[in-house]
Amino acid sequence: MQLRIEESIIHQFYQNDGQVGLRLAPSALNEDEQLHDLLVELTDVYTSKPAKGYASFLTETDEGDASPFPEQLKSWYDKELDFVEFSQQSAKLLLEQLQSYNLLEAGFLLITRYQHLSSEYLLVCFLPVKEGVTISPDLAVDRSSQLDISKVQLAARIDLTEWRTAPDAERYISFIKGRAGRKVSDFFLDFLGCTERVNTKEQTQQLVDTVQEYAKQSGLEAEQRQALNKTAYEYCDEQWKQGDSVKIKDLSEQFAEQYPSDNSFEMFSKEFAEQREKEIADDFPADKSTLRKLVKFQGQGGGVSVGFDHTVLGERVHYDPATDTLTINGTPPNLRDQLRRYFGIDS
């Protein structure tokens, strides 16, 4: 990723006798190769996280307690605060939130301002640490603490360009929606003073339902429906990888090239949404896990987990709705080997 670092700083949070302490950095980091590599790795990890939420700062009409962070951000952006002072105020605010939620988190708060393409961003990220071992210069084994970048769960990226040019926009803040629990996610949003505006899972599920219904009502054969689903998946997946939104108009144009129809997908999506009384946006960020439903059947329950591609339904996999029976012809090699070993059958 090509990015230009403008300013960066790191503050430390540590545990001491069951309390969280804060050690403030007195100055910003010098830009060097190590810092650049860290931020490139961090932004790559952030971008690759499959589940993200999209938010904007609270307004007077929103419920919830306002956080000082948006005003601090504005003061810094308007050059009323310098970067170091702004970051220190943010760190102190985060400490208050950690104490308020009774969370004992040790790690580092990274705040960095950078440019990518034509946009300017502020990345606010809590970096967890992990204990490891290292070999000292005298060849002894020592314990060491390392940043655990792959386990980052508390991170948000503010599109400063969009925030200043379109303050009424609803998704100039993106954040990781991980498995750390609702309490942790809520605490980080409270710290930033923002609220989630776009439900990406719901919007993506609406898209999946619309694509499948469009293929059905267009009178396409099974293979053609699968091809249409694949086209939708590949387009949406590429948009997700690039960090771009899914645009109904662009997808409609791709469908029209593949299977020309009097009723465009763009028009159908609006009609279908009205019928279901579920609005679908003209463009929205996709949810990676929900997208897979376009090309894969999967489910679990009662001790059974099953997943297979749409293309094998009716060939290797058969479903009888009358008896609710799924028949699989030819099991995957690793599953077959496990079963044969379990029953004592020679390979």
TrEMBL record:
GO cellular component: bacterial nucleoid
This protein's record includes keyword Cytoplasm: yes
Main location as per UniProt: cytoplasm
Subcellular location: Cytoplasm, Nucleoid
Domain of life: Bacteria
Keywords linked to the UniProt accession: Cytoplasm
Matching Pfam families: NA37 (PF04245)
InterPro entries referenced in this protein's UniProt entry, alphabetically: Nucleoid_associated_NdpA
Keyword Cytoplasm included in the entry's annotation: yes
Gene Ontology MF terms in the entry: double-stranded DNA binding; single-stranded RNA binding
Family that this chain belongs to: Belongs to the YejK family.
Protein name: Nucleoid-associated protein NdpA
Organism from which the protein derives: Idiomarina zobellii
